[in-house]
Write a structure and sequence with these properties.
mainly beta; 7 strands; about 100 residues
């Protein structure tokens, strides 16, 4: 949701902007951002044992909002600052 007043992107559903309190939020679709940071997980939480190792990245969207996403791509091709694509699949956010 993007605030009509301040332009801040609110990642979770909300009635009012978490930044300025304004009550007009518009749905947005995002498909890309910049890789802000990432980490490779070798010891997963319960339920993720079959998917190790996996990479979780932090993606910076417009206006500086950050989201975390699972990485789906060439494992050696990650560079902080690179543009990446985002996709929601099976209720999980992925980037490549």
């Amino acid at each position: 949701m993007k605030c009509e007043k301040c332009g801040k992107i609110n990642m979770l559903p909300a009635i009012h902007c978490r930044n300025c309190g304004y009550g007009q939020l518009n749905e947005i679709n995002f498909s890309e951002g910049a890789l802000y940071s990432y980490t490779k997980i070798h010891v997963p939480p319960d339920g993720w044992n079959s998917t190790t190792p996996y990479i979780v990245g932090v993606i910076e969207l417009e206006k500086g909002s950050l989201v975390s996403a699972l990485y789906s791509g060439e494992k050696d091709a990650l560079t902080v600052g690179n543009r990446v694509n985002l996709m929601l699949k099976d209720e999980r956010l992925f980037f490549w």
